[in-house]
Amino acid sequence: MRGRLRSLVVFAGLLAAVLSAAGAVRIPVSPPESVVIGPGDLLQVSVLREPELTQQVRVMDSGEIVLPLIGRIMVGGDSTPRADGVIEKAYQSGQFLKQPQVTVTILQFATQTVAILGQVRRPGTVTITTPRSLLDVLAMAGGLTADADRHITIERGGVWGEQIQVYLPNNAQADLKADVSVYPGDRILVPKAGIVYVLGDVGRPGGYVMQDNSHLTVLQAVALAAGANKTAAQNRARLLRKGPDGYTEERVPLLAMERAKVRDEELQKDDILYVPFSARRNLLLGGSGIIASASSALIYAHP
Questions:
Q1: Which domain holds residue 284?
Q2: Cα gap 171→274, rounded to integer Å
Q3: Is this prediction's pTM over 0.85?
Q4: Which pLDDT tens digit goes with each residue over 168-223?
Q5: Between 20 and 30 A from 240 (CA), which of 93, 126, 160, 192?
Q6: Are the beta carbons of 277 and 283 closer than 8 angstroms?
Q7: Which domain CATH number covers 81?
């Protein structure tokens, strides 16, 4: 019986060594906490089997808290799991407890509001007392406007704030998958989406929002503008693009694009696509005239 046990032990040791050498044994690592402790937060510090050390404390402006036996200890800017370890180490290094087990919980955030700026229907502040989803918080601000960019920035609250970039696709199911948590004290910025202008002999000339992850092609823009009219000179279409030294102008083979003879071109923010009227209508504009027309297009021609 002893020989069999010894063989099993040896086999287990060899198996563990082989798996370790092959890199097959992996310890899962928890993702980092996105919320951190900030000044003014109310914490519950619980010490297992030591009820007299368990208490509620308020984080000072310095980021410190005061606990029995160990006194002041810095937890500001730490996640709650990290604060657990800091306090455990302090109790252990001071020889107050041999194997302390500490759990830190945020009972109340110092700041109860979330500031929402930019392209929402009711910009300002909303009040939340616990973490809420980004979609919930945006709904509290009336939702996104029609010309909102779907690339949203969340700035975590507190002096140790970090910025998180979130992309919310223009799709209900994808929105739910991309959703993240918003905490009291956070700030949300919803920028304005890029605009491209389609002018000239088209059904609905005007400015159009680049909503599909900021992607819009020439043919898509013309389609949003209800297409080129029958009287349009599509073979003389022009694209004006803004650069560091002003606008540059290039010809756009619109008719060839429609017939799939030429690749559809990707547009950029502030591009101006001009589809001229036919020679019979004799309405020709130079580059400066097209730019002036785009500047006067104050109302977006939303489809």
A1: 195-295
A2: 31
A3: no
A4: 877 655 556 667 889 888 899 999 888 899 999 999 999 888 876 678 899 999 99
A5: 192
A6: yes
A7: 3.30.1950.10
